[in-house]
């Protein structure tokens, strides 16, 4: 039996009638940019996350850019971010004119290593971006303490972790700004690109509202230069339908992750390392990522031959990317754990709609590789 890494239709098609009705409503309204659907979705997102303010944005990448712009990050500034992450984290910093400074990560939970971050502080450091990777929260107590000590702004990259929590608070509501993605593969996956920013600060909220729409307020008056970072009304309306199911989606991913952990624990060890989860945080399992020292590529070949979807997130850390090779030396140095993880990690199917037979197939393929 083939098992895809992700099957978006398994989640979307059961909602087909409702999604089509929403599409028809937006079509007939003739209002496709901003408007009631956008405002309603933002309000429901804020309620779901326990955030004071939520603003829909054109993509997860743009959400990071808007957040950095709102914090006045730009040329001459440095921003600490993990090397082991998706490219958008670092690329967004670079696009503001600031310099991304790559820090190493923790080998067990994949969050930014604050000892590495501390070693890379300079007078130019203005902000830090903790990435809640694969669906799990960074240690935000340590993060906020570190940021406060060094006068840094905190932009939480929550692209993979909508609904994840840290000590009862939603990821993205603890730092200065949270940035989310609704790319179709995410836990709350849309029908194209889309994103969100959250903040508890009313001043930042007003600023990001203006930045989203070319810095305009009132109409045709621009006190700042923003961009076209609006999310389509149709995307908001469609996502609003799915948002009401986010609890069951997260529960399904957690159930599947627990199945893998229970079944595979007897064969796990130094050569096959299962993902860990913080006791004080709720992991939402955007990915179930294992580490296979020395044999990861063999395992990928093995799984692919058996029809099991798998992917390497991420094979090249940021400090090894060609486009960043001319950054200052301190931006690129001393990230050995990021290099190690890039050579060891592989993710297997964990999406909520997997059935028992598919879970058995994936687990059996892993067991046969190690037998």
TrEMBL record:
GO terms for molecular function: transaminase activity. Coiled coil: none annotated. Keywords: Aminotransferase, Pyridoxal phosphate, Transferase. It comes from the Bacteria. SUPFAM superfamilies: PLP-dependent transferases. The keyword Transferase applies. InterPro entries: DegT/StrS_aminotransferase, PyrdxlP-dep_Trfase, PyrdxlP-dep_Trfase_major, PyrdxlP-dep_Trfase_small. Pfam families: DegT_DnrJ_EryC1 (PF01041). PANTHER family: 3-OXO-GLUCOSE-6-PHOSPHATE:GLUTAMATE AMINOTRANSFERASE, TRANSAMINASE. Belongs to the DegT/DnrJ/EryC1 family. This is DegT/DnrJ/EryC1/StrS family aminotransferase.
């Amino acid at each position: 039996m083939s098992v895809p890494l992700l099957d978006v239709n398994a989640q979307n098609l059961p909602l087909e009638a409702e999604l089509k009705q929403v599409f028809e409503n937006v079509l007939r309204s003739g209002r496709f940019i901003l408007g009631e659907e956008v405002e309603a979705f933002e309000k429901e997102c804020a309620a779901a996350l326990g955030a004071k303010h939520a603003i829909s944005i054109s993509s997860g990448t743009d959400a990071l850019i808007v957040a950095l712009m709102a914090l006045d990050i730009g040329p001459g500034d440095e921003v600490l971010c993990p090397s082991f992450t998706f490219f958008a984290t670092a690329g967004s910093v670079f696009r503001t004119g600031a310099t991304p400074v790559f820090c190493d990560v923790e080998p067990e939970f994949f969050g930014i290593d604050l000892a590495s971050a501390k070693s890379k502080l300079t007078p130019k450091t203005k902000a830090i971006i903790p990435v809640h990777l694969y669906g799990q929260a960074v240690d935000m107590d340590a993060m906020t303490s570190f940021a406060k000590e060094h006068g840094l702004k905190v932009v939480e990259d929550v692209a993979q972790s909508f609904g994840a929590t840290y000590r009862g608070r939603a990821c993205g509501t603890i730092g200065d700004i949270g940035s989310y993605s609704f790319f179709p593969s995410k836990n709350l996956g849309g029908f194209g690109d889309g994103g969100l920013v959250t903040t508890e600060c009313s001043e930042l909220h007003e600023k990001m509202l203006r930045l989203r729409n070319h810095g305009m307020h009132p109409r045709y008056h621009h006190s700042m230069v923003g961009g076209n970072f609006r999310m389509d009304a149709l995307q908001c309306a469609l996502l609003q339908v799915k948002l009401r199911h986010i609890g069951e989606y997260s529960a399904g991913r957690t159930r599947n992750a627990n199945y893998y952990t229970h079944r595979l624990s007897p064969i796990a060890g130094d050569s096959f390392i299962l993902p860990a989860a913080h006791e004080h945080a709720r992991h939402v399992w955007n990915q179930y990522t294992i580490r296979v020292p020395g044999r990861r590529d063999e395992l990928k070949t093995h799984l692919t031959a058996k029809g099991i979807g798998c992917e390497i997130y991420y094979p090249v850390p940021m400090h090894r990317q060609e486009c960043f090779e001319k950054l200052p030396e301190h931006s690129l140095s001393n990230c050995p754990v990021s290099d190690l993880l890039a050579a060891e990690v592989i993710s297997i199917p964990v999406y909520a709609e997997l059935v028992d037979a598919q879970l058995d197939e994936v687990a059996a393929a892993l067991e046969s590789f190690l037998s």
